[in-house]
Amino acid sequence: MTQPSTDLETFANPAPERDYTIRMNIPEFTCLCPKTGQPDFATLDLEYVPDRTCVELKSLKLYIWSFRDRGAFHEAVTNEILAKLAGLTQPRFMRLTARFNVRGGIYTSVIVEHRAPSWHPQTPVQLP
To answer: 108 pLDDT band (50/70/90 cuts)?
Structure first.
């Protein structure tokens, strides 16, 4: 039986010579409000330009699941997830956007980024 896990796995980037963007939409993130213990729901959007490694999807799913029974403020959990993913994969660029469902009449979005110091994005090509 599959269980939540804090272990993340990677695999070798199949095209490390090229900048390209990986985008993942994770619509079933849950954690607990640290004040009330009630569940918080969010959609996570992960975007990154890999360098040498990419995050493996099943391990990412199990890692995200590991937050289900943890109390966490929106800002803290978003930064924690980005720090773990960026620390593991060492991407050229990574952005995590967490869009939380309404709590107390307020919708919260938290956007955090990591950028490798030596990486500069290429200018996008504008096609006619």
So the answer is: very high
Q: Is residue 28 part of a domain?
A: no
39 occurs within a structural domain: no
Considering 7, 19, 31, 33, which one is annotated as catalytic?
33
Q: Indicate the pLDDT class of residue 103, thresholds 50, 70 and 90.
A: confident
Which of 7, 19, 40, 69 is an active site residue?
A: 40
How far apart CA 25 and CA 38 sit, in angstroms, is 24
Question: Tens digit of pLDDT for each residue in 19-62?
Answer: 999 999 999 999 999 999 999 999 999 999 999 999 999 999 99
- Count of domains in the chain? 1
Give catalytic status of residue 31 as yes or no: no
The DSSP annotation for 11-67 comes to EE-S-TTS---EEEEEEEEEEE-TTT--EEEEEEEEEEE-SSEEE-HHHHHHHHHTT
CATH, residue 80 = 3.30.1130.10
